[in-house]
Every structure is written in C-alpha cells, then in structure tokens.
Amino acid sequence: MLLNKSPAVELIDVWFKYLSSRDYVLKGLSIAINKGTSVAIMGANGSGKTTLLKHVVGLLRPQRGVVKVLGMDVQAVGFQEIARCVGFIPQNLNYMFFASSVRDELAITLRNFEYPDRLVKNRIELVAESIGIGDLLDEDPSTLSYGQLRLASIAIALSHDPEVVVIDEPTMGLDKRYREALAKIIRQLAEDGRTIIASSHDVEFVSKAFNEAALLNEGRITVYGGLREVLYEYTELVKARLTMPTVPKLFNELEKCFNTLSKPISVGEFLSIIMERLGDGRGCCRASD
After folding, report:
1. How many whole angstroms from its chain centre is CA 203?
2. 40: exposed, middle or buried (Cβ count in 10 Å: 0-12, 13-18, 19+)
3. pTM of the complete model
4. Which of 155, 223, 235, 240 is in the most buried spot, having the most CB atoms within 10 Å?
5. Any idea of the CA torsion for 189, 191, 195, 198, to the nearest 10 degrees?
6. What is d(CA 285, CA 258) in angstroms, rounded to the nearest whole number?
7. pLDDT digits over 95-141, tens only?
8. Cα–Cα distance between 39 and 94 in angstroms, integer?
C-alpha cells in the first residue's frame, strides 16, 4: 500500500530533564515520523527512549521545543485529546489491568472513550480476534502469562481505534513464541495504515518487525531511516551501545565476497543472495584473496 507521507508525530528541538537530574535527557531532539509507518526508537538502557515516548503520548511536556501528534501541539491540548488518537502500552503492564476479566477491561476502556453500549460487545470481539486473544476474554488478567498480558495490553490500546500506537520495550519478558506473534501484529498494524512507534534495544526483533528505525544517543537522534540504512550503520550502532543484528553483521563479514549493493535484513534475503552468487559461480572468495 502507498504510505501517507504527512507526519503523524513530530518532535522539534525538544529539550527535557527531570527535576532530580542535573543533565538533560533529551537535548535538541528532532524527528518527524510519517503516517502509516512503524518505527523503532533504538538505544541502550537509560538513553531516553521511554522519555521520548512519554512526550509523544502527552505524559511529559518539554522544557523547550515542540511536540506535535497528528498536527496537534501536545502542549496546547489536554492529555485526553491526545489519548483519543494515541494508544499507549507502557513497560509495566500492571498499570493497564484493574478489572476481573480481559473482556471487562476492554469494555471499561471503550466506555471511557464514549463508545455506545450497543457497539461495545462487537468491538471487543473484533479487537480480540485481530490480536488473537479471543480465548482469553473471560480470563482474569492476574492468571495470565506475561506474553498473554502483552497481547491483551495491545488489544486494550487498540480498542478505541487510535491512529497512532506507542509501545515501550515491547519484547521485555517475552519468549520466542510471543515475540514472533508480536512482530506479526506490528507488521499488520503498519499494513493497515496505523503509525507504530516503539522503544527497543532488541536489534533482532527490530529487524523482523519494523519498517524504519532511529538511533537515540546522548539525547539526540543520530540516524533515522529504513532498516537497511540504520542497521548497517556499524559505527553509529556502537556509539549507541547496540550490536548489529545477525544477518547484517554476517553479511558485512562476507561483503568482500559479493559484488552486490544489496543489504539483506532477513535470513531469507541473505540466503537468496548466497544462492544467486553460488549459482553464477561468483559466490565464494578465492583462496588466494
């Protein structure tokens, strides 16, 4: 599908520090994220990823600079107005669950956003089916695994149909099964035209789930673009205290063996290049090289 190139989220020269801190966490940070894309804000622990996301959802306000969401100046509108168009999933999922069942939790959220009672039941079932938690609707959240809670939290955030979805450290505590399920959901949300912004230091997950990535280092965005651009920026990844994902790292090691401008991200892309080079006799370095 063609992406709408107008910005969904803009941070312009944003400066922020906590009252307990001597130094700024965000230092003149600027980024414009287009509608209909999925972006991972990448950086080491403590780099300010969560702080950035809290500005997007209106939980924090900059000391200097401007934050816009769908054209609205976050400082000029109330938190409730931002919450109508932004679904937020925090790191700590305990903040999202208070009811005795997932169904009730979804119903409460929908009623808070003034959904008519006649539409609530159908909306709950539609969202639950899209996320794959239909069998969890009548379960008590306190009995669910962390992976199940993560999927339920995404259903809650999507329940009122926000245009922008913000997820703080989506893979924290997840095993391989739920990581794969979550990557699939993020890809589908982007295909459906939503804007997804997530913080992560999990480079392997980012390479599988997102369209774009941005490196956050020392309070500023140092690199922002498509995955093939960002995940091959070895020097900037090191500066941000991140490692290259497996496929780009391996391909960089073997790059002198290939006469190609390709930058594979997935295992399938990598194998395709290998097989193409082997097939035409150009795939291996000579022993004398």
Report:
1. 12
2. buried
3. 0.87
4. 155
5. 60
6. 8
7. 889 999 999 999 999 999 999 989 999 999 999 999 999 999 999 99
8. 25
